Amino acid sequence: MVEHLSIGIDIGGTNLRLALVDGRGNIRRRSRTDSAIAEGRAAFCARLVAGIDELRSAAESSGAAIAGIGAGVPGLIGRDGLIHSSVNMRPLDGFNLAAFLRERTGVPSVCGNDANLIALGEQAFGAGRRFSSCMVITIGTGLGSGLILDGRLWTGSGGFAAEFGHVTVDPEGVLCSCGNKGCLEQYVSAGALVRFARELLPRELLANLEGALDARMVADLARQREGGALAAFERMGRWLGIALASLVATLNLEAVVIGGGVAASFDLLLPTLTAELAQRCFPQFTSGCTIVKTELGDDAGLLGGAALAGTVA
Predict the structure, then answer these.
(1) Do residues 60 and 80 share a domain?
(2) 83, 243, 268, 306 - which has most CB atoms within 10 Å?
(3) Are residues 143 and 260 in the same domain?
(4) Are residues 242 and 136 part of one domain?
(5) Statement to judge: residues 101 and 193 lie in one domain
(6) pLDDT 10s per residue in the chain (313 long)?
């Protein structure tokens, strides 16, 4: 019997990553190259197709076949695979990547928001496996999110649902790149953590730092029990708790799964986050909602792409 494998693709502003994945979530082969999106859509698509061809050849040489292709892209991606807007991948705006891949490869292909695919990967193979309803949040340069309801990825009427990072938490707050003021992403992200730290750390400490302050340095200072760094994490945990309280009260979720670069400091966020939830939600909501870390790391998007490919294979 011929084994059927999927190709998961994680497209970012810097890296283009692909993986050959089996039905149990094992990555058989992977590849990485520069996205180099500044070179334009045609050049990017050529690199993408070359990566797919490489993995397809590897599968066929082992007697396997490609059943489907699933790609994750940052931005607003419609149900049909049309990229409506991608801040980090502007040459792809207005491009239907799913249709392009189907035409060029002859393989069933689907495209979705990258954070949604991370959620799908964690739900299929990672920390979300034991939950039927959860929100998966990635905290890094921005705040990405994907929503699993009753065991299925929830994308809304047009495919754009779960943009949790653009929920308004402060109506007259910090201006967001989306044009709104006070989006959650401006208070829960690596950049927000650094901004808070600059406000809270002693001036003499900031003056003596070697290199530019970043989220990892703030975390290191917090682990050394520096008060300003600890307060920065507390402030970020509070903002996340405020936003999550509304979500948990609305959806009665089983879990919130937190990942991304800042998730390495999950333990520094958790106390304030859980305290804020307890203060703002009925205990019936919080007692049934677990806060956990992601398990798949950087592979979540690749595995989510493979899982999404399984829906069209």
Answers:
(1) yes
(2) 306
(3) yes
(4) yes
(5) no
(6) 889 999 999 999 889 999 999 999 999 999 999 999 999 999 999 999 999 999 999 999 999 999 999 999 999 999 999 999 998 899 999 999 999 999 999 999 999 999 999 999 999 999 999 999 999 999 998 999 999 999 999 999 988 999 999 999 999 999 998 899 999 999 999 999 999 999 999 999 999 887 889 999 999 999 999 999 999 999 999 999 999 999 999 999 999 999 998 878 999 999 999 999 999 999 999 999 999 999 999 999 999 999 999 876 5
Burial call 130-161: b when 16+ CB within 10 Å, e when fewer: ebebbbbbbbebbbbbbbbeeeebbbeeebbb
The DSSP result for 179-246, as a single string, is: S-BSBGGGTSSHHHHHHHHHHHS-HHHHHH-SS---HHHHHHHHHTT-HHHHHHHHHHHHHHHHHHHH
Q: What is the CATH number of the domain that holds 79?
A: 3.30.420.40
Residues 77 and 102 in one domain: yes
Number of domain units in the chain: 2
Cα 218 to the chain's mean position, in Å?
22
Are both 245 and 174 inside the same structural domain? yes
Do 13 and 88 meet the contact criterion of CB atoms below 8 Å apart? yes
**DSSP calls for 91-114:** GGTTEEHHHHHHHHH-S-EEEEEH
- CA distances from residue 100 to 44, 77, 91, 110, 202 in whole angstroms, order as listed: 12, 14, 14, 10, 53
Residues 136 and 267 in one domain: yes
User: Are 113 and 163 found together in one domain?
Assistant: no
| Nearest-5° Cα angle at 259, 254 to 250 | 35
Token pair, residue 45, equals: 């698509």
Which residues make Cβ contacts (< 8 Å) with residue 312, sequence separation at least 6?
68, 70, 108, 109, 110
Q: Which two tokens stand for residue 190?
A: 């690596």
What is the rounded distance in angstroms from the CA atom of residue 261 to the CA atom of residue 269? 13
Beta pairing, strands 15-21 & 27-34: antiparallel
Which domain covers residue 134, as residue numbers? 130-294
